[in-house]
Amino acid sequence: MDLSFFSWDLISKYVVAGFWFSIQLTVVSTLGGILFGTVLALMRLSGKPLLAWPATIYVNGMRSIPLVMVILWFFLLVPIIIGRPVGAEYSANITFIAFEAAYFSEIMRAGIQSIPRGQVFAGQALGMSYAQNMRLVVLPQAFRNMLPVLLTQTIILFQDTSLVYAIGAYDLLKGFVTAGKIYGRPEEAYLLAAVVYFILCVSLSFLVKKLQARIAIIR
Amino acid sequence: MSWDWQVFCKNTLEGTVEATCWAKGGDQTYLEWMLQAWGWTLSVAACAWVVAIVVGGLVGTMRTLPNSPIAVRIGNAWVELFRNIPILVQLFIWYFVVPKLFPSMRQVPGFLLVVFALGFFTSARIAEQVRAGVQALPRGQRYAGMAMGFTTAQTYRYVILPMAVRIILPPLTSESMNLLKNSSVAFAVSIAELTMFAMQAQEETARGIEIYMAVTALYALSAFAVNRVFAFIERKVQIPGFIVAGGTGGGH
């Protein structure tokens, strides 16, 4: 074990670029995932079979196959669909939005269902349309109720971004692996990667706990 | 584009289509290779599941012990450690770093190291569920055990754990399915399992879509089978009149 090879130079050369990609991928797929996930949840709760069925099949399908396979699928399919070769990073973004939408939709569905019926009736009594009711009454509350769960899912998502290793995208883990290879110290690099992921995830979950205490609605 | 399902009947060495989809002698068709890979996926997942249940059960129980703050701390630390590092990084550490640091681990086959990585990773999640399950029981259950003159071990064995296990069966189901899906990361250390097969066969045959479809179907089928087995167990151990609190496992 020799950590002396580890220097600022190494970090700025190999790790920082990967770190930013991991963060970018996490942020983009969280936002995109919540957006499409909410749409999927609304489709499933719409009561219209033509909308509910496709959404249900999509969500359950995505949830029953390993993320690595989804990453491989999209890496294969995206270039065919858009008709030109794309980089692993581009493909990773699309994959994670599509994959995480399935998980976020389950969270949003639970959130929407946690809103008491009386709230919906109150909106209707005020003469609100379905869209207004959703946008002004139901979704803001559902979102607030589910915020801690959404953020916990984001931490899991952040850990999962390391799986883009399968298609060779340059993320945080790849940054460490590359540095370890170039300096001939792969074992130390793996350990450092573990420490960095650990610190990031633990601090994030600590923040989520703090937030949870602050935003909890007292009933 | 057109389908070419014959790719599965191709000999992996000569690339010729075998009439029976089953190669003679020492050769192999892609179909045979895939079924073998499926076997590896199932073996890795099954062995890791045993590790995860045993370790997760122990750690989870430890975290609920009364009057033993040290055991609770160790249990909590265990869960935090294994939950906050991505599975792929943990796998690399087991596979590359552990044998380097501990020379005695060098004889351990790679298959077992992957099993440990997946098993311990999942054990943290199961420990969390076991803790939640035990704490979901009314305090009176524990007191009832004490009033009967049971030791702590007996209280857990006869009163608390039988109920807690029933409570956590639904989240345990999804965690077991997650374990099966997570076994796909073993491709990164070249275990010949389904994902590894998918990547290699895709490259060799250039029939990625057919190969991926078959592999995806096998994963979905396996996950579904796990689901059914657990549903069966759940029905079998159900206690009439005891309504289990609903719970869902997060993550994947």
TrEMBL record, chain A:
Role: Part of the ABC transporter complex GltIJKL involved in glutamate and aspartate uptake. Probably responsible for the translocation of the substrate across the membrane.
Naturally occurring in which organism (per UniProt): Ramlibacter algicola
Subcellular location: Cell inner membrane; Cell membrane
Keywords: Amino-acid transport, Cell membrane, Membrane, Transmembrane, Transmembrane helix, Transport
GO biological process: amino acid transport
UniProt xrefs under InterPro entries: AA_ABC_transptr_permease_3TM, ArtM/GltK/GlnP/TcyL/YhdX-like, MetI-like, MetI-like_sf
Annotated TM spans: 20-43, 64-82, 149-170, 190-208
GO molecular-function terms, A-Z: transmembrane transporter activity
This protein's name: Glutamate/aspartate import permease protein GltK
Record flagged with keyword Heme: no
PROSITE patterns with a match to the protein in the record: ABC_TM1 (PS50928)
TrEMBL record, chain B:
Keyword set, alphabetical order: Cell membrane, Membrane, Transmembrane, Transmembrane helix, Transport
Keyword Zinc-finger part of the UniProt annotation: no
InterPro entries documented for this protein: AA_ABC_transptr_permease_3TM, ArtM/GltK/GlnP/TcyL/YhdX-like, MetI-like, MetI-like_sf
Any one annotated GO CC term: ATP-binding cassette (ABC) transporter complex
Protein name: Amino acid ABC transporter permease
Organism, scientific name: Ramlibacter algicola
Membrane in keyword set: yes
Span of domain ABC transmembrane type-1: 38-230
CDD domains listed in its UniProt record: TM_PBP2
